[in-house]
Amino acid sequence: MQTARQIESVLKDPNLDEDLKHIARKVFADERISEEEGLLLFEKGPLSYLGALANYIREKHHGDKTYFNRNFHMEPTNVCLYTCTFCSYSRLIKKREEGWEYTMEEMLDIVKKYDDQPVTEVHIVGGVLPQYDLQFYSDLFSAIKAHRPDLHVKALTPVEYHYIFKKGKVSYEEGMKLMMDAGLDSMPGGGAEIFHPEIRDQIAGGKCSGEQWLRIHEIWHELGGRSNATMLYGHIEEFKHRIHHLEELRKLQDKTGGFQTFIPLKFRNKGNQMSHVTESTVIEDLRNYAISRIYLDNFGHIKAYWPMIGRNTAQLSLAFGVNDIDGTIDDTTKIYTMAGSEEQNPALSTEQLVNLIRRVGREPIERDTLYNVITDYTDHVFEDDKLYKGYVSLPVVKG
């Protein structure tokens, strides 16, 4: 755990900017930092300093506990009406022969593949097409629940809901209630990208606006639902746009308390219209995780998607505010690989995930989607308890 000596060393560092020391005092006193202070963290915060503050918050709330779940991803289609410049995953209507468009029966067959496995969640997101409408998803959620009532359905982003509600001529309020009644359990955080219109219009023009994204989540929260939030970073945005994004999330969380987890999503430049943009470095990634943890003082969890950043960086992130690395993930349609992720085979067994967490001195906790503890693997011994081969063991790093 973070010690008083470590905290004291931050405040006594003669080389540290006085404004940064002031922010540190606020963090250690559980006081909220301002937008201006958040921007200063991006502009001037050294990595070690940010790690110390973020790890202090992480361990204050969670100790060494690091969460994961057993889940699988399912994408109805990778053909999409929208042409987001950052997207390596979707295929345009005119190139639909390069993609897939699953029928209802095919999607249910995918779900049934996991009937004998202890997965707790199906994560459903995909492209936007007319045939995947309000009735389709209502029937799909109902069919999944009828087949396997205990499987948590985490599905669709506001980008998809905005389209299908408009097409179905129902309000956001009516549409979200229909989805809940059909079996929707929670919402993922995708489609947020960057809220500020200055950037959003350039990289995701035509999709729902930042305000509409936030409004759909707000309505879902008002219905008693929980959801996640994301931010796509490391492309053409500036630090001020990241802070604006975090501030909008923090304000809505103050209002509803419905967000569970924040997931920073690293921009990858493979196979998209922004391939000329240089990707962020690992150091920049870790700084962004840390600042997110510091700024979002009303979010319970910060998650790193290990397939997108790689296993080693995911391990490092656990010392920079992250306390969740998502799940086992069986990526049946290779969405992560297509997006240029670090992992070419984005699936891990429970034992591999547990060892990934253990090897940096953290405690692996299997959770369900709503963060109820299923199994504490801290002292668990597997029958064949070997460290996952092919990855160098990392030293324990904390703040």
Q: Give the C-alpha Rg.
A: 21 Å
Give a short account of the largest sheet. Answer: 4 strands, mixed
Total count of helical runs of at least 4 residues:
16
Q: Name the CATH architecture of the largest domain.
A: Alpha-Beta Barrel
Q: Could you state the order of secondary-structure elements as H and E?
A: HHHHEEEEHEHEHHEHHEHEHEHHEHHEE
Oligomer: single chain
Please tell me the total number of domains: 2
Do you know the CATH topology of the largest domain? TIM Barrel
Roughly what fraction of the amino acids lie in strands?
5-15%
By secondary-structure content and strand pairing, the structural class works out as alpha/beta
Which residues form runs of ≥5 with pLDDT under 50?
331-341, 385-399
Strand order, sheet with most strands: 11-1-12-13
Output the CATH class name of the largest domain. Alpha Beta
Distinctive features:
single chain; 399 residues; alpha/beta; TIM Barrel; four-stranded parallel β-sheet; 13 strands; 14% strand; disordered C terminus
Summarize the model shown.
With 399 residues, the chain is an alpha/beta fold. Helices cover 42% and strands 14% of the residues. The chain folds into 2 domains: 4-62, no CATH class; 65-376, Aldolase class I (TIM Barrel).
How would you characterize this protein structure?
The protein has 399 residues and is of the alpha/beta class. It has two domains: 4-62, no CATH class; 65-376, Aldolase class I (TIM Barrel, Alpha-Beta Barrel). The protein has 16 helices and 13 strands. β9 (259-266), α12 (282-295) and β10 (301-302) form a beta-alpha-beta unit. α4 packs across α12 (282-295). The chain is globular and about 65 Å long.
